[in-house]
Fold this sequence. Notes:
This protein is an alpha+beta fold and about 150 residues long. It has helices at about 5-25, 35-40, 45-50; strands at about 55-60, 60-65, 70, 75-80, 85-95, 100-105, 115-120, 125-135, 135-145. It has one domain: Immunoglobulin-like (Sandwich), CATH 2.60.40.2470. Helix content is about 20%, strand content about 35%. A hairpin with a 6-residue loop joins strand 5 (about 85-95) and strand 6 (about 100-105). It starts with a helix and ends in a 7-residue tail after the last strand.
Amino acid sequence: MKISRRDLFVKLGKGAAYVAVLASLPKIAWAKWNAKAFASTDLKAAIEAKYGNMSISDSDKVILDAPEIAENGSVVPITVSSSLPNVSSMSIFVEKNPTPLVTSFAMGKNSINEVSIRIRMGTTSNVVLLVEADGKLHRAQQEVKVTIGGCGG
């Protein structure tokens, strides 16, 4: 197959344009799946599977904003944030859910440490936020009363 000089430069130009477009797209976040933590059926076991034996301290720089009463347990709005420096992860646990670890976010050094999400709760329970910063775990927790169950209830 013969290719002309003109066709070669056209194809090179198109290739460069594709590379430029791909480079300008936001980077895709790939999740590290911790199957043991997400499969744990006990709060303590889920925390240990996720964070090992790190000590946990309550902190006023970790904020968990959840409703006191959730009318529907299948869509409970939660906002979590932290003013701590060097946050590396934020995880939300629901103590009485069949699997307590609801979600976990890996935070980059340039991340804004605030996340809003809707979670599922089967029954009235404590919602626990754990924030890992500088190799330490910080906690905030709040009880949410559920009037209609969301996890098969």
